[in-house]
Design brief:
CATH architecture of the domain at 214-363 in chain B: 2-Layer Sandwich
CATH topology of chain A: Rossmann fold
CATH superfamily of the domain at 214-363 in chain B: Histidine kinase-like ATPase, C-terminal domain
Strand content of chain B: 15-25%
Distance between the termini of chain A: 6 Å
Shape of chain A: globular
Strand order of the largest sheet of chain B: 2-1-3-4-5
Oligomer: heterodimer
Largest interface: A-B, 25 and 29 residues
Structural class of chain B: alpha/beta
Number of domains of chain A: 1
Number of helices of chain A: 6
Radius of gyration of chain A: 14 Å
Order of helices and strands of chain A: EHEHEHHEHEH
Largest sheet of chain B: 5 strands, parallel
Number of strands of chain B: 12
Order of helices and strands of chain B: EHEHEHEHEHHEHEEHEEHEE
Distance between the termini of chain B: 35 Å
CATH architecture of chain A: 3-Layer(aba) Sandwich
Number of strands of chain A: 5
CATH class of the domain at 214-363 in chain B: Alpha Beta
Strand content of chain A: 15-25%
Radius of gyration of chain B: 33 Å
Helix content of chain A: 40-55%
């Protein structure tokens, strides 16, 4: 882990869940910046336009079940991006429930670090940072 | 079975005289195919998958009837097998049952009554077997649907609850009252989502289990009731709600289904408004004439992308990432409209607005 705290991007179609995640992360104090998106497509656009970054890594807190572009579709699109961009991010999946199908699907995406149950807590934030 | 199409049966015998005799006797009763050997029989079976009964002589050169049945059993499991034989030794009877899995055993020389009886019994067995197969398939489908249903329901019920749990946790570290108030407002939305969702499941259950209850419908009264319901949630907002109800004749229909349709379409129109829009509106038009009722709900909200319009009536589909939405409402509407033998169409443009039009017949 580098000295600087990571950046956070929260992607969740529920505004409340975005807000909660932001608050919880803020309370830990272990962050450089936090941004949240209720649409995965917007997050993807922003990642694309930010290009290659040289500062601290960005943790993506990603909900699975979302309309229009769900978590898995987001990861699929993310893995199409240039490797130099991808290496600036670490993706963690979040959901209120996960079925076997989703678990098996996760194996197909090397960029997904881990799955966590909702709601996000300060312990989960600490564990995500440990895994960077 | 006078009007019914004759059932197909296949008779296999190496003696051509037997075949023609058989055909002559029963051609009025059945659609008969004949074969002098196993190869011909296979050809018939291949080109006629709907053959219901196979009769086969036990004594044929090269292959016995039992051997023939044993051979075709796995490839053509559906036709019911009847063995014709002059032999009466117990061993061949045992073989025919154990190896050939025959349904009946008819002794030669047969009488017409023997054959008719055996074929009719075999046909009944065939029909009940096929019904069972169809039922099994239906059951499997229903089971798969239930599986998907329970997963989605669990997810959609836990979602708002876990949001509230998270909010409570976050609020415990807050000192700023206005921040806590914001949090409470969002928790309220979560609670409302969960309640809406449970109401939708209740509607879904009623629609799928309940019988139609046809009675006279007064649309004015119905809409007034809707307005009372909406006044708690939506009418306080800045959306202009106008109604036009023209009922030229008495209308009979299922009130519960019609209410459900109106309720869902109107609440959608209120929910999917554009926040920045200055003159938000929802219009409800009802016209009852010439034996049908036309319900139209129009808004100038966010609209539905054309590419998604084909999916909006599917269960759990959401065309919008708006927070409120379970993917249940329009599915229920569609089920209700179908139940009333009605039609629903959507006319929508992204960022311009949406218009749903439902037509139902007077009962």
């Amino acid at each position: 882990m580098s000295l600087a705290f990571p950046h956070f991007i929260v992607i969740d179609d529920s505004q409340l869940d975005c807000f909660i995640a932001e608050k919880i992360i803020q309370n830990t104090g272990t962050y450089s910046s936090i941004k949240s998106y209720t649409q995965a497509t917007d997050a993807l656009e922003s990642i694309k336009s930010s290009g290659v970054k040289n500062d601290a890594i960005t943790i993506i807190v990603l909900d699975i079940q979302m309309p229009l572009m769900n978590g898995f579709q987001f990861v699929e699109a993310f893995e199409q991006l240039p490797k130099e961009i991808q290496s600036g991010y670490a993706i963690f999946l979040f959901s209120s429930s996960i079925n076997e199908n989703d678990k098996n699907r996760m194996e197909n995406y090397p960029s997904i670090k881990r799955f966590y149950g909702k709601p996000i807590s300060k312990e989960t934030v600490a564990r995500m940072i440990e895994q960077l | 079975m006078e009007k019914q199409e004759k059932i197909k049966i296949l008779y296999v015998d190496d003696e051509i005289n037997n075949l023609t005799g058989f055909k002559a006797s029963f051609r009025m009763n059945f659609n008969i195919m004949i074969a002098v050997n196993a190869t011909d029989a296979m050809e018939h079976l291949n080109s006629n998958p709907d053959i219901r009964v196979i009769l086969c002589d036990q004594r044929m050169p090269g292959k016995t009837g039992v051997q023939f049945f044993e051979e075709i059993r796995s490839r053509y499991p559906k036709p019911i097998r009847i063995l014709l034989t002059g032999y009466t030794d117990i061993d061949s009877v045992i073989d025919s049952i154990n190896l050939g899995n025959v349904f009946r055993y008819v002794k030669k020389p047969w009488t017409d009554a023997d054959i008719l009886g055996a074929i009719n019994e075999a046909n009944k067995f065939y029909v009940s077997n096929s019904l069972l197969a169809v039922k099994n398939e239906e059951l499997q489908r229903a089971y798969d649907e239930l599986d998907k249903f329970s997963y989605s329901v669990t997810h959609d019920m836990r979602g708002p609850l876990l949001s509230i749990l998270g909010a409570i946790e976050a609020a415990q570290h807050m000192d700023n009252i206005s921040e806590i108030r914001d949090m409470l407002m969002m928790m309220k939305t979560s609670v409302r989502n969960l309640d809406d969702f449970i109401q939708s499941i209740h509607d879904y259950y009623n629609l799928n289990r309940g019988e139609l209850e046809i009675k006279q419908i007064d649309f004015k009264e119905l809409v007034e009731e809707q307005i009372r319901i909406f006044s708690f949630t939506y009418l306080v907002s800045d959306v202009k709600f106008t109604t036009s109800i023209v009922q030229k004749e008495t209308f009979r229909g299922d009130e519960l289904s019609i209410k459900l349709i109106l309720n869902n379409l109107i609440s959608n129109a209120f929910k999917y408004q554009k926040k920045e829009n200055k003159d938000k509106f929802v219009k409800l038009n009802i016209l009852v004439e010439n034996g049908s009722a036309m319900l139209e709900v129009m808004d100038n909200g966010v609209g539905i992308a054309e590419s998604l319009q084909g999916d909006i009536f599917n269960m759990f589909f959401r065309a919008n990432s708006h927070e409120v939405g379970s993917g249940f409402g329009l599915y229920n509407v569609k089920v209700a409209v179908t139940k009333l033998n009605g039609k629903i169409t959507v006319d929508s443009e992204l960022n311009k607005g949406t218009c749903f039009r439902v037509t139902i017949q007077n009962k």
